[in-house]
């Protein structure tokens, strides 16, 4: 067959990115010729910003092998002398159903322990181990999340006051709803990584 009859093979199109490895953008890229969509209410933007920060923190923690919830639990334990599970769940702001598998994972890795309270043998406290403190020290920089630019001084106080008001309102609602069976971090509202 003459050389002129040979043709280069057609280029193989690149495979589309795996959606599990490339999550969708929270703020879609503008489409040429499309009308600009409103960005949403302040509350919508707050939720989106929080989701973006959490996603960034999870991504930064992935190489360390600890989910964000586990790091949060270790952080709370590092600042206390040990807590019963109900207190730990409240301080970490996660539901008891989410906390149990996280503690199982941390205990399995030797990062936390459930110990009997010496003052009352009926009580079991969760404590951080030496290995847990070392692991927390290693992952803490990644867990802090992305660096964000400082707000202009004339906006910072108003935004801070708004965020405090939102948190106070939602935490009050959370407290009021606890007796009704609705909890933050319950399986209905948050998925567990462990």
Automatic annotation (TrEMBL):
Extent of Pro residues compositional bias = 10-31
Entry's Gene Ontology molecular function annotations: DNA binding
Q: Which keywords annotate this record?
A: DNA-binding
Name-wise, this protein is: DNA-binding MarR family transcriptional regulator
Organism, as annotated: Pseudonocardia parietis
Q: Where is this region: Disordered?
A: 1-41
Q: Which residues form the HTH marR-type domain?
A: 39-172
């Amino acid at each position: 067959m003459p050389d002129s009859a040979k043709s280069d093979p057609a280029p193989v199109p690149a495979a589309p990115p795996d959606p599990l490895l490339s999550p969708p953008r929270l703020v879609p890229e503008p489409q040429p010729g499309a009308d600009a969509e409103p960005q949403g209410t302040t509350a919508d933007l707050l939720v989106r910003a929080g989701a973006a920060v959490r996603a960034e923190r999870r991504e930064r923690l992935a190489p360390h092998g600890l989910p964000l919830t586990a790091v949060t639990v270790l952080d709370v334990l590092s600042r206390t002398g040990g807590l019963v599970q109900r207190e730990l769940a409240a301080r970490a702001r996660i539901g008891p159903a989410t906390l149990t598998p996280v503690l199982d994972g941390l205990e399995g890795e030797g990062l936390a322990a459930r110990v009997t309270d010496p003052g009352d043998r009926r009580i079991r406290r969760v404590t951080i181990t030496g290995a847990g403190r070392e692991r927390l020290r290693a992952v803490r920089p990644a867990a802090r999340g992305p660096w964000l630019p400082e707000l202009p001084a004339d906006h910072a106080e108003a935004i801070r006051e708004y965020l405090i008001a939102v948190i106070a309102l939602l935490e009050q609602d959370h407290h009021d709803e606890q007796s009704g069976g609705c909890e933050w971090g319950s399986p209905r509202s948050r998925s567990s990584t462990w």
